[in-house]
Design a protein that fits this description.
Blueprint lengths: L23 H13 L7 H5 L2 E6 L2 E6 L2 H10 L4 E3 L1 H11 L8 H11 L5 H6 L1 H16 L5 E3 H18 L7 H14 L5 H4 L12 H26 L8 H7 L10 H31 L2 H13 L10 H4 L1 H13 L6 E5 L3 E3 L2 E3 L4 E4 L1 H4 L19 H5 L19 H18 E5 L7 E3 L3 E3 L4 E6 L1
Parallel strand pairs: 2-8
Antiparallel strand pairs: 1-2, 3-5, 4-12, 5-8, 6-7, 9-12, 10-11
Helix pairs in contact: 7-8, 7-19, 8-13, 9-11, 11-13, 13-16, 13-19, 14-16
Length: 463
């Protein structure tokens, strides 16, 4: 008997938009929704119409979910758009001028320097570290068989272990446990824009509650700087340095005469740690949750993994064998995109779909809405990995599915993240079975990333 499609939890669209007229009461209602869960802002109209022009507190927002308009916005005319002030206000205190917030010539130079770091050869070279850390995760979870396990915590630890191994080759000078705790506290304290950021208040106005986050960032920066500077001295003196991300960053741009400065190396290391670790951990946890609640898809994934060769000496080829598992991961990122919003500010006039854009207009693509849009997907709220297979998968519009963004600012670590998720999922599912835990139904909540309202917990058995 075929199992009914699993419809995972999500906040229902609003029937009417929130009252956003500039009045004290409207400000309070709007900020209350934003503080609770910004996903609740989206209305039925947003999920059924491809373009909207919304006004919030007197500021125009062009909301676009038309793939053709998105292509124009992110690719064809991307030079007409700059990063929003909110994005810089949220991320600059953490990542400095890392690639995620750099703009103009600074961004171009950084991107040129970093692109060779993420070549297929280098990404594939990190596959063995991904396998080793995933095996360690199997051992850790196996000590709690037949119990309810906090999968969110396990995936956070796994992705951090992988990232630290790939960034620093497990440098002993780094206190991994302390580092993990600092990162977790940072995301708790700086997990969403401050109301002053939403109002674009001057930077000099104090953001209450941000002081603790800045102290954590300073401590993280000291830890990373200590390792980076020691490695720089080693490389400069001709010492034997491991071929990890740190060494590659220190060498980046040297062949073109545009090496990264010490601050730029540290900024980008913090960017990779903050962005790469958090987003992948969330995506893995959601994927295990979806499979645990969809027995037919879980069995199909297990069968495919059992039949695959999975040569540990060629981990980059695992994805070629595990087509269904890859589709599962893609479907998970459709339903729960780690980065639930893309936004830019228009520099000059433009036309996006049927909307006329003026300079200063904020243009927003909600990947949360885009990936569940009624005009772009069949059964958009159901978990169905088969939509990414065969002819249906080939027909998906490139700009209707944006888990890693698109255009010149597409996520530079997308191939690294996909390889990591395939290896982690395959390694764990080969040895362990993940099942629903009674009463556990986490709701998606938008912070900097899309995260569960409560940690994802699943029952785990040996296979």
């Amino acid at each position: 008997m075929t199992q009914a499609a699993f419809r995972p939890p999500a906040p229902p669209p609003r029937v009417l938009p929130p009252n956003a007229r500039p009045s004290p009461g409207a400000y309070m209602r709007y900020f209350k929704i934003m503080a609770r869960n910004p996903l609740e802002i989206w209305t039925e109209g947003h999920f059924n119409k491809l373009t909207h022009l919304d006004s919030i507190f007197g500021r125009d927002y062009a909301i676009i979910h038309d793939p053709k308009a998105i292509r124009h916005f992110l690719v064809t005319n991307e030079k007409n758009y700059r990063l929003t002030n909110i994005r810089r206000a949220v991320f600059e205190p953490v990542t400095g001028q890392g690639i995620f917030v750099a703009e103009g010539e600074n961004w171009k130079r950084t991107r040129r320097a970093l692109t060779p770091v993420f070549t297929p050869r280098h990404v594939q070279g990190f596959g063995r570290a991904m396998i080793n850390k995933s095996v360690e995760a199997v051992d850790a979870i196996s000590s709690r068989l037949d119990e309810v396990v906090n999968i969110s915590d396990q995936m956070t630890q796994l992705t951090l272990n992988i990232l630290l191994a790939c960034l620093f080759s497990g440098d002993q000078k780094l206190d991994a446990k302390r580092f993990a705790n600092d990162l977790e506290r940072l995301f708790e304290k700086a997990g969403m824009p401050h109301p002053f950021d939403l109002m674009e208040a001057p930077r000099w106005m104090p953001r209450v509650g941000r002081g603790g986050a800045l102290r954590i960032v300073a401590d993280l920066r000291r830890q990373v700087a200590s390792i980076a500077l020691a490695r720089k001295r080693l490389v400069a003196t001709g010492g034997e340095a491991p071929e990890d991300f740190l060494t590659l960053l220190l060498r980046a741009g040297q062949d073109t005469g545009e090496p990264l400065s010490e601050d730029e190396v540290i900024d980008n290391l913090l960017t990779f740690l903050a962005a790469g670790h958090e987003t992948t951990a969330r995506s893995l946890a959601w994927t295990f949750y979806l499979l645990a609640n969809s027995p037919d898809n879980l069995r199909r994934a297990e069968t495919e993994i059992d039949a695959a060769t999975l040569n540990i000496n060629e981990p980059a080829k695992w994805g070629d064998e595990l087509l269904f598992l890859t589709a599962v991961i893609k479907e998970s990122m459709r339903l729960y995109p780690a980065a639930p919003i893309l936004s830019r500010t228009a520099i000059g006039k433009d036309k996006l779909g049927d909307l006329s854009i003026d300079a200063g207009t904020e243009v927003v693509v909600s990947t949360w809405v885009l990936h569940r849009h009624r005009k772009l997907w069949r059964d958009p709220d159901n978990f169905d990995p088969t939509r990414f297979l065969g002819d249906e998968g080939k027909a998906i519009d490139r700009f209707a599915y944006l888990p890693f963004g698109a255009g010149p600012r597409v996520c530079i670590g997308a191939s690294f993240a996909m390889q990591e998720m395939v290896i982690a999922m395959a390694t764990l599912l080969k040895e362990l079975r993940f099942l629903p835990a009674l009463g556990e139904e986490p709701q998606p909540v938008m912070r900097i990333t899309l995260q569960p309202s409560t940690p994802i917990k699943l029952r785990v058995e040996a296979r």
